[in-house]
Amino acid sequence: MNILEILKVLVLGIVEGFTEWLPISSTGHMILVDEIIHLSQPADFKNMFLVVIQLGAILAVVVLYFDKLNPFSLKKKPAQTKATLVLWSKIILACMPAAIIGFLVDDILDEYLMNGYVVAATLIIYGVLFLVIENRNQYKTFDVQKVGDISYQTALYVGLFQLLALIPGTSRSGATILGAMILGCSRAASAEFSFFLGIPVMFGASLLKVVKYGSNFSGSQIVYLILGMVVAFVVSIYAIKFLMGYIRQHDFKFFGYYRIVLGTVVILYFGISAVIGL
């Protein structure tokens, strides 16, 4: 087993765990980081790895929100159980567009869009959108303050916004948070609903990648996957807590500026690399 590869996996796990829940694109960041550190694995394994380690991040949501998401808790009254089941029905409804379209275009996305230039462009575009939306919302009172108050119609529309995240660099959380805010949800409700949508979406995406890859794992590759997921899980716990604490006092403008700066840096990096032949 290669120690250098293990260090690369640790870096990618940290990047995944920290960026998955922030509206700055975890997949985009991992593509960019891999462009620099170059995980020395076959392309098909690498594409699968960058998706499957997101399971670690998902488990962080399950752990942190287990009581809220568990409809079978003996501590819940019948009305609370019903409300939890209704929430899950809205989550599933919102996930349907991405599940269907994502399955159909998965191979096309891998072939044509999984690269640094696409990531740079979407980072900048959605960074600008965050600034525009937050400037519009500066004095706005949101109609939906709690995630439980999101209607079925709003859930479906947020699911349609989630389709935008099929393009690398968009950010699944960024697209769904922006969509939910445009539809009148508060920042906290938008962020929580985005977290919950990630559970079935990422489980489904990971399963699809593993099935397509098959059972051709080497022993070291299994270790890399498990290690990446564990690191992503631990880091995600802190990232989720950070984001929920941050948005109680701030808006999302900082993430908009960050996306624009990072996208610009990426374009300059690839441009300079092309000129000097790196």
Architecture overview:
There is one protein chain. This protein is mainly alpha-helical. It starts with a helix and ends with a helix. It has helices at about 5-20, 25-35, 45-50, 55-65, 65-70, 80-110, 115-135, 150-160, 170-180, 185-215, 220-245, 255-275. Helix 7 (about 115-135) runs antiparallel to helix 12 (about 255-275). It has one domain (about 5-275). The longest helix has about 35 residues, at about 80-110. The relative contact order is 0.20.
Properties at a glance:
278 residues, mainly alpha, 12 helices, globular
Measured by DSSP, the beta-strand proportion falls in: under 5%
Secondary-structure-derived class: mainly alpha
Mean pLDDT: 88
Radius of gyration (CA) equals 19 Å
What is the ordering of alpha helices and beta strands? HHHHHHHHHHHH
Helix fraction by DSSP (H/I, runs of at least 4): over 70%
Largest sheet, if any?
none
Shape: globular
Q: Regarding quaternary structure, how should these chains be classified?
A: single chain
Counted beta strands: 0
Provide the low-confidence segments as ranges.
none
Distance between the termini: 28 Å
Number of helices: 12
Tally the structural domains: 1
Q: Short description, anyone?
A:
Helix content is 76%, strand content 0%. It has 278 residues and is mainly alpha-helical.
